[in-house]
Design brief:
By secondary structure, the protein is mostly helical. About 90% of the residues lie in helices and about 0% in strands. It is built from 5 helices and no strands. The protein has helices at about 1-45, 50-100, 105-155, 160-185, 190. Helix 2 packs antiparallel against helix 3.
Length: about 190
């Protein structure tokens, strides 16, 4: 049991390191977003947008980004729980099967089958996770484009054509940062 305890302890340390890296990445992302939003507000005001309108538009973007982050986190947490539950069920089944095995050869066969199934299940879950994340990212991108269109229309109605072009460029910058936001919730395998 000492080897199993050491394995579990090492696994917990790796999980803790992953959590810390993820938290650090989220903090860096939040800082980059804040800096970008401040720059966007200044650019809007410089292009003739009244400060109150610029602040209101930036606030809407910030609110949308907070919702996006929350939705990504909830989805990630749901997938982690599902994966942990399936792993626990498979582990329990393995232990039951190993305990009922009569010979060492049978135990080895059961362990080999478990290993093959674990690899296949991991691939299946990774594919499911990537598909769900992709669909969520598509929905979030569509929301952000709709918000940008709304902002452009507000500015165009006020005769601020140059500012509307600034909003368009800012959306391009946000899209690049959204890629980083999506990567924060990727698994190591997906990021490679």
């Amino acid at each position: 049991h000492e080897m199993l305890d050491a394995y579990k302890s090492g696994k917990e340390q790796i999980a803790q390191q992953k959590r810390l890296k993820k938290q650090l990445a989220q903090e860096r992302l939040a800082k980059r977003r804040k800096d970008m939003q401040n720059g966007h507000k200044i650019a809007l005001v410089d292009s003739g947008v009244p400060e109150e309108l610029a602040e209101a538009q930036i606030k809407e973007v910030e609110q949308l980004e907070a919702i996006e982050d929350k939705q990504r986190a909830v989805q990630d947490e749901q997938m982690q729980k599902k994966e942990a539950q399936l792993a626990a069920e498979r582990e329990a089944q393995l232990q039951t099967d190993l305990n009922s095995a009569a010979t060492e050869e049978e135990r080895k066969r059961i362990a080999d089958t478990y290993t093959k199934d674990a690899v296949a299940n991991k691939a299946k879950l990774a594919e499911e996770r990537a598909g769900k994340r992709s669909r969520l990212n598509d929905r979030l991108a569509a929301r952000k484009k709709a918000l940008t269109s709304k902002h452009k229309k507000q500015l165009e109605e006020k005769g601020l054509e140059q500012a509307a072009q600034v909003v368009e460029k800012q959306q391009d910058q946000r899209e690049k940062l959204d890629v980083a936001a999506a990567e924060v919730t990727m698994t190591t395998e997906e990021a490679e």
